[in-house]
Each structure stands twice: as C-alpha cells, then as structure tokens.
C-alpha cells in the first residue's frame, strides 16, 4: 500500500479492481464504509462477479476476466479528451505519459465495450465519477495480479492515478489488499526467488554487503553454489518449483546447473493453493524427500503417492510464537506469544536452527544476531554477548541490515512500544498522540533512522522527509533518450534544501548534491551508497538537509527494461474471444524464466480453446477461510459454515447442462484435468461463467485421498482443489500463476 486502510477514509472516490474486501478483509472494509458515511465517498467496483463489495457500490461494472488494461485505458481516453488530467503534476513528476496518451486514444468507449463487456455508457459514467471526486484511491488484490499480464495490470493502475495527480496524496494512492497476515513482511524479507531480503538485487556487491553484515566470508557464501555465477540468477519460483524435480515429464527446458531438485522443505505454505495441481503432484511423487513443517498436516502429504521419506514436523501456530509482523500498509507490529508451544510442536525458527546445526552452518546462520554497527561504519561482535535473544535480536539484525526500504528505525524496542501504545494513535492518519507524538503507528517504512517517525503515505511531497515525505525514487539513471528523469524544478518534499529533482545519494555525490563537506573521518566511515552504509552517515546528512536518500525523480510510465515498455492489453492464453488473440497476442515464449521455459504465444495460438471450453472460470476467497484453508477446515465450527467445496453457477447455465442446485458436477480444464464439485445456483456470476473458492483439498480429480491423513488429523471439511483445473499461464515478470482467468467445460456428474 502506498497509503493505509485508515487513509481511505479521506478519499472522495474509491475504485476497486479485482478485490472483494467486504468478504476478504471485513475489518478493513469498515474504513471504506466510513469513507462513504463521513466523506460521501463514491464507491466504484470493477469485478467479473457481483460480490458483496459490489453490493455496496455506487456503481458496478461486470468486466470480462483479464481485460482490466483496456478498461483503464478507456478511462484515460475520456480523462485526456476532457482535460481532466493533472497536467502540472504530470509534467513535474511523471516520465513518459505522452506514450500513454497515444495508446489511450485507441481505446474508445465502444472498443472497450467490445473487449471488456462493460457498456460504453457505464465506462463514461465511472470515469466521470472518479475523475471529478478527488482525491481518489485505487484498490486491488489478487484479481488484478494473478494473470499472465499481472505486472502490466499493476503498472496500469498507478499510471491512472498519476494522470489524475492522485499519487502521493492523502486519500489517494494505490492500495493493495494482501491475502494473508504478514504477506508484506514475507516479501520484504526476501521470500522471493529473485532478490535478497529488502529487495536487494542478486549482484556481487550486494552479496558482499550481506556477507559482511552476517559476519561470514563472501567466499563461504560462494561455496554454497556451483559457482559464483549462480548467485546472480533467480531460483525456481513457488509457482513452478515442480518443473525442476527429477523425472518430471515436461517439454519445457530447465536450466539448473545440470541438476534436478530432489528434496523439498515446506514451511507453512499450502501447496494446494498453487496452480497446476496435477504437475505439483508429479513433482511431489518424484522427490527423494519431502519435509512439511506446519501446525496442521499440509495436504501435500496426502496428495503425493510417496510412501517413504515424507516427514511431517509439527510447527507452532502464531499464538505460540512472538516477533515482528508487517501489515499491508508497510507498518510493523509486535506479536506477543499467547501460550507456549503445545505438545511436541516447535516454532519455525527452532526447526530451522536444528536443521542448521545438523547441516553444520548454525554458527554462520545466527552470527549476525550477535553483531552491531560501530560509529566508524564497521561491524563488531557485541561485547560479552554469547547468546542471542529471539526474536528481539533477529528484529534488530533486520533493522541494522535492511536499508533499501528504510527499516533502520524498526528496532524491537520501538516496535514493541508502538504495539503497547496502539491506543495513542489516530485511526485515520495513524499519527501518534501524547508520548507517541511525532510518530505514525507501526513506523511504516521507510523509517530512515532510529528517531524517524515513519512514512504514512509514499511519495507525499507536502510534508518534510523527517515527517515521512518524499518524491519518487531515482533508480534508473538521470535521463533517458535525452529526457530528464529527475523531478522538475519546484517539485520537492517540504523543507528540502534542494528545490528540484536530485539523484540517489552516494558517497561519491553527497557533497556536490547536498552542498556539504564531509570530514575525513566521515568519508572513511561511509559506505558506497546509502543502501550499504553501515555508519548511517549518508542518511543522517540527508535528514539534516530535508532530502530523501533515494533521490527525487519522476515516476516511470515507460519501463524500458520490461517486455512491454508501456502496459499493453494481451488476451489471456485461454481466451473466450479467440478472434481477439490475433489482435492482442500473448508474449513470445520465454526461456530460462526462473530457471524454466515458460510458454505464452505457443499455448495461446495452438487452437481456439473456447470451442471446447466455452465457460469463463474465476476463483477467489471466502470470508471463513484463507489460503489453502487447512487451518480453517480443521476447525469443527468454522468448517460447519462451509462444509464442502462448491461452484457458483448461473441457473441458466446449469439448466442448459441439466445440473440441479446442490447436485454434483464436473469441471474440465484445457490441461486435461477435472474436478467434481457441488453446484450452487447464484446470480452473482454471468451465464457464461463459474466461480470457485481456492481453500479446499483432500480430493483429486474425483478421488477421495483423505484416507492418507495420519490418524486423527483429517480435517472436518475436504473437497477438490480448484487449482487442479486452473489454466496454464504465468506472469511474464514475476511468474505468478494465472488463476483469476481461464476457461473450462462443465457437465453433470
């Protein structure tokens, strides 16, 4: 989130793409309703399904899955034609909007109607409402991201906000609703296949920084890889790890240093919530060893046919652990332990520590928690400290190392203080009162120093850097094709010593950029740039000058290092409109995409899938469940609320196939897989669409596998996983699977 849930109450218009917060985020949705009550905010919902959120909307558009980009270009077409764009803002703070204007001209309301299914008049009405009620905030969730063009979708949304001048404004911004508790923290800490913690890149200088920060030799880290070159390459992603397993049948080339995956260790990830379940099963079956650490039996254990070397480790729940967690708005909170771990369960970190001891790297693994920075920019072991205290020392290690997103201020002491005094912060702004004055709840990053109060709204230049203000990040040079990439004169955070754009701060340029002179001692202590400066001097000098360490640049509407320099509509790989695939084709197939060949155009152009699979298929969450749903379905009382897997189907479509309400039906996918589910009549879906939740498992293509659960661990509710039939498709940048759009065929069971 650029802003926060509370900040939504300041919005005069709220537009939601591919999210259903009334169901998926019912507590957070209260802020949306308060915005309507207190601020007369206009609520606009764009979704393939008429959700409970849509029921609260002032206006709703039922869009065809995978066509969000045409819809947003259609909005921009109307905005530009009527002169509703914020030209002064765009000229000062945005690079490449002229190319967006050119593309938007093509997307007339009539063309948008043909491609998206949304009537032209509805598009015009929505655009009028949103453009004339500012500031407006744009909300999205997995309905926008989980597509083969998910990255383009999530670029298009900020571009719409930039055109209207809604970015960096209270009540504005782009606000992403995360699917789980602490998803933001997990990504911040490097649970990604293509970055180190804090989104540091996989380059030698960064590896050396982390080696130093962890107190180990760089050469020691190199030896953990086949050679140093593999340190700089992304690994397998969560979506397609199975492709690298030995003996898995695939015509997609693998590039993994000539080896295959033989073992899998899973911590708290519901395998059945990932697409391509048939291939995942094949991957599981061909492993030499499978280890599952989870409070409940991970259903990977019953999906596989493996009989040997499957180990289930009882991990503690969140109530039996403590430590730092991160909310969707980048703010930290301290989770206190409620009870000690029950029976033989252990917290995740203890399992990892035991594993590290047995594999011989425990000392290297934990050494960083015993280290501290010195004033001269060096690192040393903390005197007389022999053992670390978990999780406080781990939290302080994170604060010491992760500077890219500004976690320096996130010490365990400060985060605990915020959690203990949560009642001293304003619900809407997050601003502290009394002893917490000058800080925002949870110290939302970037929190530049140990005294910084956090940054409530990203890219806000109306307040000073010390108060959480900043411009856009300078990360891609000073100019492109002769055009300035830095913010124009007059665009700067309040109180800045520099009243124009400026580059990110480095040891080499700080004196020239800030107009200061460093002492010889300061020069000796500084790191090469603010991201690797253990002394903190570069950031401190920036704070004194009212300057943001990462620079003050223009937001990029053109991203020249992506396949599509500007967002372009590309039809889903399995499109119900085969005629449009010729006009809006998929990407070229991509070799070595997270170590595996990933197909795009070869799949899309193979045939007209809509002839055999004419029905749109969408997936989503239920209010009573999250993720793979095992912890919810293992609860007798929660399971009773949704006791079985189901498929929302329009009565007209059901009647056409002879399917009665409450009867069983088959869903077939283009992948050759099928699932058997109960039909549930619903008018929330169109007559050419079905909807299914993704929280179930235990059955596989009509076969009951719940007998594979260890005695006493079978959940109270089981069913087919919809991800057995979600279609092949992966984002071109992140490789996130395309689960929010696809085709299927149905029949009476």
Structural notes for this entry:
The protein has 749 residues and is of the alpha/beta class. It has three domains: 6-176, 3-Layer(aba) Sandwich (Dimethylsulfoxide Reductase, domain 2); 183-397, Rossmann fold; 609-748, Barwin-like endoglucanases, CATH 2.40.40. The protein contains 27 helices and 27 strands. The chain has a six-stranded mixed beta barrel with strand order 19-23-20-22-21-27. Strands 3-2-1-5-6 form a five-stranded parallel sheet. It has a three-stranded parallel sheet with strand order 7-8-9, with no helix packed on it. Strand 12 (371-373) and strand 13 form a beta hairpin. Helix 4 (68-81) runs antiparallel to helix 7. The longest helix has 14 residues, at 68-81.
Q: Cα distance, first to last residue?
A: 44 Å
Helix content: 25-40%
Poorly predicted parts: none
Largest sheet: 6 strands, mixed, barrel
Strand order of the largest sheet: 19-23-20-22-21-27
Report the radius of gyration as a whole number of Å: 26 Å
Second-tier CATH architecture of the largest domain: 3-Layer(aba) Sandwich
The total number of structural domains is: 3
Query: Strand percentage, roughly?
Result: 5-15%
The shape is globular
Number of helices: 27
- Strand segment tally: 27
Class by helix and strand content? alpha/beta
